[in-house]
């Protein structure tokens, strides 16, 4: 008896389930192909043309559409859901339909000189750990970068090797060597890029940029002139070429341990100057200089903002701008070797026209 | 582009035309002719294609790809289930292509998944396929190529074997085996005055071995 009732209960439950699912189940000969990522379904079943002709066309299409949509919705309701700000949202998978791209696949990056060499020799990349044990500080430090392990520029005590000059500064020597390595790396990186993009880079000297100013051209001429074996001593001048003055270091600092008597004299003279009543700066000269500077600034501002005519003076503004930047740019040419090519003066000429 | 009542749709690849298909419009019913409420513009539509012509005929296949591309909208990671209202149904039947646009109503059914009722919302088109200008198969292959970056990323420390079982890897630090917590045998604990209780000890030992046998 109990067994019968259990069977009845189960059968009843099954019927109820079937009832529930009847409203959403659809029978199809062939299963549809689904692409939930694109909200796309494809029904391959050949449509019933007899039905189509019998019924009203739209009715037939609508019932077909309803069935297919029901199946697609069933698929979509199977996806994992989450609640985002009181809204139930289903997480879509990646779309599976392959569609053509608009632009072709990007070409692989051109390989660097080292990569080609490694490929040739069969050298594999060895994966290195990020942290290295530093015995000095007794902790794990980066392999390279900020606060790295075994940083020889940060040592506070360096033994002077026997073969070295006793007056040489070992600390600055190490710092210079580091800077040279960095510069060399940068140069090689730029050369790799240039080779990849098939840009020609000169072996020595400055790489030309478009629209060079007078000072840039002057610098280029100077570099080219002095790039001979005799460092430009026997290069003739052009008919109207002006020899640039003020080449060389802008400021000279006394060495730390130099002429002791001169240093002593200077310090004592300082005391005398402080005692004397004469003012240190020539006030009229200073005031005139300040007024000139202010005039120049105001003139520059006026030309920058659109005046009554509405035309921006690109000539004078450009000239002043370049002129101001030209000075320190030219002076530090001797120092860094990477300042040259791209460096300071990358301003394009402004070509704007206001109302006529 | 119009030509005696037809529309040309096409796609570009690498600044050249990839394919173009001309569809002549036999019948057109506009949005205004269907008098019912519409849904907001920009809802991602549910695209459904019906008819075996889309599988067998090459031109229909390309048309299907073109229409998916055209109608699918932006690819989104999640979608609001209640907001799936727009249904675009395209049927290929007897040489014609019927495009119908419906508004889906989600009705209560007995279970979690709702029952769908459709309301014809428009616009509706009856197309015939006219001229086509398709690219060569090689060009299609090139256009469909995907870069490696778009392939799914492999997860570290997770692997699957032939049967589909998923394996994971755990990386543990070195454990001090002397300090491990294991099961304690209370009888084997060292106590004070063991030498004095000679007999007692033996009895205890027997009892504990009997216990051990039981538990094993």
From TrEMBL, chain A:
Basic residues biased stretches? 301-312, 347-356
Q: Which GO terms describe its biological process?
A: endonucleolytic cleavage in ITS1 to separate SSU-rRNA from 5.8S rRNA and LSU-rRNA from tricistronic rRNA transcript (SSU-rRNA, 5.8S rRNA, LSU-rRNA); ribosomal large subunit biogenesis
Q: Which Pfam families match?
A: RRS1
List UniProt keywords, sorted A-Z.
Nucleus, Ribosome biogenesis
Q: Where is the composition biased (Gly residues)?
A: 326-345
User: Which parts of the sequence are annotated with region: Disordered?
Assistant: 275-356
What's any one GO cellular component for it? preribosome, large subunit precursor
PANTHER family attached to this UniProt entry? RIBOSOME BIOGENESIS REGULATORY PROTEIN, RIBOSOME BIOGENESIS REGULATORY PROTEIN HOMOLOG
Tell me the function of this protein. Answer: Involved in ribosomal large subunit assembly.
* Similarity comment: Belongs to the RRS1 family.
Q: Protein name, please?
A: Ribosome biogenesis regulatory protein
What organism, scientifically named, is this protein from?
Acipenser ruthenus
TrEMBL record, chain B:
Q: Where is it located? A: Nucleus, Nucleolus
Which residues are in the Brix domain? Answer: 1-138
Q: Locate the region Disordered.
A: 174-216
One BP annotation, GO? maturation of LSU-rRNA from tricistronic rRNA transcript (SSU-rRNA, 5.8S rRNA, LSU-rRNA)
Is Nucleus one of the keywords UniProt gives this record?
yes
Major localization listed first in the record, in broad terms: nucleus
Q: Which Pfam families match?
A: Brix
Q: Which family does it belong to?
A: Belongs to the RPF2 family.
Record's GO cellular component terms: nucleolus
Q: Residue spans with biased composition (Basic residues)? A: 181-193
**GO MF, one example:** rRNA binding
Cite the PROSITE patterns for this sequence: BRIX
PANTHER family for this protein:
BRIX DOMAIN CONTAINING PROTEIN (PTHR12728), RIBOSOME PRODUCTION FACTOR 2 HOMOLOG (PTHR12728:SF0)
Record's keyword terms, sorted: Nucleus
* The protein's name in its UniProt record: Ribosome production factor 2 homolog
